[in-house]
Amino acid sequence: MVTTELRRDPITGRSVLIDLTAQPHPHDFVLEPVRLDDAPAECPFCEGREADAGPELLAWREGGPANTPGWSVRVVANRRPMLRIEGGQDRRVEGVFESRDGLGAHEVVIETPMHDQAVHRLDADRLWRVLWAWRTRLQDLKRDARFAAAVVFKNHGRAAGARLDHSHSQIAAYPIVPAALDEKVRGAGEHYGRTGRCVFCDLTAQELTDGRRTVSDTLSIIAIAPFASRVPFEAWLLPRDHAPRFEEVSDATLEAMAVILKDVMARVDWALERPAYNLVLHTAPFSGDADAGFHWHLEIIPRVTRWSGLEWGSGVPRNPVSPEEAARALRAVAIG
Predict the structure, then answer these.
(1) Tens-digit pLDDT profile for residues 233-274
(2) What domains does the chain contain, in order, with CATH numbers?
(3) Kind plus residue range of the DSSP H or E element containing 4
């Protein structure tokens, strides 16, 4: 009896090993619920401590001067940046080794003034403002000709890399197209070269027809458990229509995105008992010819498993929960 299946990611070509049994072993999971404690006195992201986070690059506020209380979303430069605006673009080559300055931008999007408010507990309008901040900052970073691409990401919980509990996401702009994005752009380009079609459009159409891996759906955005999910309960949010760049989406699309993101995140939070997770937004590089074959998309990656030597040695993730089973479980969650 076949109990596992090797699945090929239709975009990157990478393989994933899926456990088809409906009874994952308890040792397959590392469930450490994320608890948001009361705000410590030194949290730099809390309202009233604006000076500790630094001057704002962008904010949504109903009135009043910059860098004061009264905001609902605030964007600041990361105080411990991995990429810096200052730096050169020259490559340094020493034999087989190559390096360059860590040029770029590293920003923090403070998603709420409230310390203990998880992002999926924001109402849809406030979550829209977070997405608005992502879009607006991507538009601005794109104007800097030194930057080739940007990635938006969120770390929630220590297991996902978060240092602070206060809900926030980050934006990193690079002078190169980073490997994870480049791999998708190349794979999408190869599919387009073979078929003349966008692989994301083909994937979305097939998932809507199949239905087994669909988690939630609106007229403009679909949420799926990907066919080659790398981790249990991984979910992707994709636009139904062809849209390569998140910085170009309409306000209406942001509204639909806020609704479905809140819905799916609430389902994941309930099903996995408040897990740590990462969010990753991939959008097309700022320049180049990727537009015809690429879609922006948001990945939800629960951090509920750890790699063993099997995964590190092979590069093939093992997923103990099939995406079909994960989607079924997420659909079954009652959201009130």
Answers:
(1) 999 999 999 999 999 999 999 999 999 999 999 999 999 988
(2) 4-31+42-85+95-332 (3.30.428.10)
(3) strand 4-8
